[in-house]
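User: Can you model how 1,5-di-O-phosphono-alpha-D-ribofuranose sits in this protein?
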Amino acid sequence: MDRDALQPRVHEVAGDIETMETRGAAKIAAATADALRTQAVESDAETAPALLAELRAAARFLLSTRPTAVSLPNACRYVLRRADGGSVEAVRASAVESAVEFRARLETAQADLGQVGANRLRDGDTFMTHCHSTDVLACVEAAAADGKELAAIVKETRPRKQGHITARELRDLGVDVTLVVDSAARRYLDDVDHVLVGADAIAADGSVVNKIGTSGLAIVARERGTPIVVAAGTLKLDPATMTGNAVEIELRDESEVLTDAQREDIGDITVANPAFDVTPPRYLDAIVTERGQFPPESIATLMRELFGEGPTEPWQEL
Ligand code: RI2
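Assistant: Here's the modeled complex, given as structure tokens:
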């Protein structure tokens, strides 16, 4: 199906995800569900199969924007598996209902996992974090609501410096924030009670894919004996990894690393800009989800319960 037939809002949402105007795994998932809802509402398809074909095409288009955050295909799975019916109106209504339900579940999940994560944090604790994760923020927000006073060492997170967003949001929650450059992490780990990070995807073996720099932080934290906790709703579980698929690591443009002038000045070199890395389960202490806290090695059991034995790809063309 031609992408031009998709609603302008779907193009807008896809563009915002691609340029990272909309970023963070949970926000990407929420925007994806909204885009599919808009496609259903605004479509002038006249038959149920035509509307379903449009929804599948919209999902494929959204999926082409960023390859790593599994929340994106999981949002598409949720909406498309429930969009069904004998008439165009029935398909429209079920797509809208499932997209709205997905958003509501996302919010509840974040609040629930926030409380689980908050239970790990004690009054007076200091944690270190990397990048910007709304799941991590949910844990801190719940701890703050419980009256706990916290301090945070926030890594700047090159190249896009999402640590600045985290620093501002933590400060707004009343957390005592120290911002450090990424390479200062090891120096400050002695002052830290927990490392608390988010995730873009979690594989069936308990490996966690998160912003580049997470795995190095986890290895150094393990050496120091500092617990490493991942806050991640079950939306981040990647069912495709149950059948042996690897998570694709997004490689982004070199312009995020060097300005044109810097590039010109340095001359003929290669610039590599992977957005994510993989932390093996042996460096992680716990994965905090809305279903409770799990040792990383046991996550496959939860995956099977939620997704069955393997992934579905309801966006495939029939
Ligand atoms: P929440 C972000 O990726 C970070 O890697 C962060 O840890 C992860 O998404 C999860 O974010 P990016 O979109 O879902 O900035 O917890 O590349 O908000």
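A couple of observations from the model: Residues 88-120 form the longest helix (33 residues). The chain has two domains: 3-112, 113-307.
User: Helpful, thanks.
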